[in-house]
């Protein structure tokens, strides 16, 4: 499914990544057809200038996203407080 076919509520924040890590994730998501959205983020001026990219993904493919993240980086997604982890959300 393409990202323009999903509603904004169908996406959940995966996390914020430096451009090189974001590129690796987005390439894999594209290869397997996982819809995603990106938004550049400007962090606060301290401790130094660093460009980050917020990545949101199709919420129905969270398991695949987590596996891809683990395959690339050896750990789970960084944004543990995000809506990505549906089982731990307070409703």
Write up what this structure looks like.
The protein is α+β, with helices and mostly antiparallel strands. It contains two helices and three strands. Strands 1-3-2 form a three-stranded antiparallel beta sheet, covered by helices on one side. Helix 1 crosses helix 2 (62-73). The chain is globular and about 35 Å long. 20% of the residues are buried.
Sequence-ordered SSE layout with sheet pairings:
Elements: E1 11-17, H1 19-32, E2 36-41, E3 52-58, H2 62-73
Helix pairs in contact: 1-2
Mean pLDDT: 79
Strand content: 15-25%
**Tally of discrete structural domains:** 1
CATH third-tier fold name? Alpha-Beta Plaits
- Tell me about the biggest sheet? 3 strands, antiparallel
Helix-and-strand structural type: alpha+beta
Biggest sheet: strand arrangement: 1-3-2
- For the termini, the CA-CA separation is 27 Å
Helix amount, in percent? Answer: 25-40%
Assigned CATH architecture? 2-Layer Sandwich
**Number of E-type strands:** 3
Q: What oligomeric state is this?
A: single chain
- Count of helices? 2
Descriptors for this entry?
single chain, alpha+beta, 29% helix, globular
Write a brief caption for the model:
A three-stranded antiparallel beta sheet has the order 1-3-2, with helices on one face. The protein has two helices and three strands. The protein has one domain: Alpha-Beta Plaits (2-Layer Sandwich).
């Amino acid at each position: 499914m393409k990202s323009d076919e999903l509603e904004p509520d169908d996406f959940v924040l995966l996390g914020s990544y430096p451009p090189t890590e974001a590129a690796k994730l987005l390439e894999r998501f594209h290869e397997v057809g996982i819809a995603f959205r990106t938004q550049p983020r400007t962090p606060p001026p301290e401790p130094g200038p660093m460009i980050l990219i917020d990545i949101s993904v199709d919420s129905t493919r969270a398991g695949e996203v987590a596996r891809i993240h683990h395959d690339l980086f050896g750990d789970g997604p960084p944004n543990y407080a995000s809506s990505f982890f549906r089982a731990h959300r307070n409703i």
